[in-house]
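Hi everyone, sorry if this is the wrong subforum. Our group has a chain we'd like a structural model of before ordering constructs, and none of us has done structure prediction before. Sequence below.
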Amino acid sequence: MTTPAEHPDQRHHEVRVPEVGLRTTTVLTVGVLAWAVVLAVLLLVPGLPGPGDGWWVWVPVAGMALGTLAHLGLRAR
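Answer:
Right subforum, don't worry. Here is the predicted structure as tokens:
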């Protein structure tokens, strides 16, 4: 019995990761700004979060907080 590593038809290929021309900090900044826009819309449009939907406001707040923490973590590296 042959193991998968010994199989004669198995070919090994070198994996090349393509370069991405986009910085992670840029993506995080755009994400935090997008959450800020969502928060502004929720706060400025009257009646958008209906009764019992007060948690809607906390979703963009959490998104902005997590994005900011990730951004600070990347800058510290």
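For your construct planning: The two ends are 48 Å apart (CA to CA). The first helix runs from residue 24 to 44.
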